[in-house]
């Protein structure tokens, strides 16, 4: 995986827990920031640190469009998307380093 490839990602506090959707051009760096509470905010407040899903995109524009689409989805749809690719809700962070 190219470290600078745009992608959309979902973090969770635990299985079936609080979800966070974000977009970045450097997934490993951004997840590290979330995990280490570098920035105050939602993921810090709710301990949302586990990378459970991500999707690579060719352009930042398509990644941002997908992020907006996913944020508008119902929670069950987001859960189904995670379960289809990561039924155990494993932390995918080690796989992107």
From TrEMBL:
Cited InterPro entries: GIY-YIG_endonuc, GIY-YIG_endonuc_sf, UPF0213_domain
Keywords of the record: Endonuclease, Hydrolase, Nuclease
Annotated GO MF terms: endonuclease activity
Domain GIY-YIG: start-end pairs: 4-81
Domain of life of the source: Bacteria
UniProt cross-references to Pfam families, sorted A to Z: GIY-YIG
Alphabetized Gene3D superfamilies for the sequence: GIY-YIG endonuclease
Family named by the database record: Belongs to the UPF0213 family.
Protein's name according to its UniProt entry: Putative endonuclease containing a URI domain
């Amino acid at each position: 995986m190219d470290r600078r490839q745009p992608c959309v990602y979902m973090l969770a506090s635990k299985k079936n827990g609080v979800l966070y959707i974000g977009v970045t051009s450097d997934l490993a760096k951004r997840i590290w920031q979330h995990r280490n509470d570098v920035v105050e905010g939602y993921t810090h407040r709710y301990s949302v640190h586990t990378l459970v899903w991500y999707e690579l995109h060719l352009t930042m524009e398509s990644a941002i469009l997908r992020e907006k689409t996913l944020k508008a989805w119902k929670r069950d749809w987001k859960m189904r998307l995670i379960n289809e690719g990561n039924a155990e809700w494993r932390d995918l962070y080690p796989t992107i380093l």
